[in-house]
Design a protein that fits this description.
Layout (H helix, E strand, L loop, with lengths): L6 H13 L22 E6 L3 E11 L8 E6 L11 E6 L3 E2 L6 H4 L3 E2 L5 H14 L9 H7 L3 H9 L10 H6 L18 H14 L3 H6 L14 H16 L2
Parallel strand pairs: 2-6
Antiparallel strand pairs: 1-2, 1-5, 2-3, 3-4
Length: 248
């Protein structure tokens, strides 16, 4: 039976635990790598003749008469090679490498390939998901003051976009030359931060009639943008578009 220590016992043990932290002390080498391998372990494997990429060990195959044990692995799905995310069978131990604790000499012999790190992938996925949620971030006063004057034209772009002249709308004019991405978002954000984009989405959702119907269909800001009659407004819009493209 497992007994949970009391709060007093836990406090008494804490100083000793801090004074003697648990850590690996055994020198690790590729020579005894096989003894450290187990199914489920994340490890590096060589792809081709030179570069190593992350993968997970799936299952071991013991074949003493055919050159030793081999492993089935699954490559990290964001590795920068043609087998990313796929399984590979019969990978010999000679192609594998782990952390090689306290063995900098052997570690330096391992040449790493390119891949996306997990936290970067997580952040990218979070950004994509949040941009489809109009309630992800409330719009700011600054965003409100910037967009309110253009409410009528933004509403027209939603309900009757063909009535908006593309001559005065850089984004719409650009989109007309990109037939293969018709209906998708313009891929330029310039110096707008993710929070800025979320605030704009929220403002649009709150202030443009029927915008919520578009968000329910996983809507993103379309290539059609704004138009205004005055030369000054047109100049400002064109300059803003140039900056958006330049700084992306």
């Amino acid at each position: 039976m497992c007994l949970i220590p009391t709060e007093r016992e836990a406090r008494q043990r804490l100083p000793n635990m801090l004074a003697n932290p648990t850590r690996r002390t055994t020198f690790e080498s590729l020579a005894n790598l096989s003894s450290r391998l187990f199914a489920g372990k994340m490890i590096l494997a060589r792809k081709g003749t030179k570069y190593y990429y992350p993968c997970r060990l799936i299952a071991k195959s013991t074949r003493r008469a055919q050159g030793g044990d081999t492993w089935t692995i699954k490559w990290w799905r964001y590795a920068n090679h043609s087998s990313a995310g796929q399984y590979e069978l019969k990978v010999p131990i000679s192609r594998l490498a782990d952390a090689l604790w306290e063995n900098s000499a052997e570690r330096r012999q391992i040449q790493l390939g390119e891949w996306k790190r997990a936290y970067i992938v997580h952040e990218l996925n979070d950004e994509e998901e949040s941009l489809t949620n109009p309630e992800a971030r409330r719009f700011t006063t600054e965003i409100h003051h910037a967009l309110v004057p253009h409410s009528p034209i933004l509403s027209q772009l939603l309900h009757n976009p063909d009535a908006v002249s593309s001559d005065l709308v850089p984004a719409k004019r650009w989109a007309q030359t990109q037939r293969d991405i018709h209906g998708n978002a313009v891929p330029f954000c310039g110096l707008l931060t993710l929070n800025d984009q979320l605030s704009i989405n929220n403002w649009y959702y709150k202030h443009i009639e029927d915008a919520y119907l578009e968000f329910e269909h996983n809507w993103e800001l379309d290539a059609d943008t704004i138009e205004h009659g005055s030369d000054l407004e047109q100049y400002i819009i064109n300059q803003a578009w140039d900056k958006l493209v330049t700084f992306t």
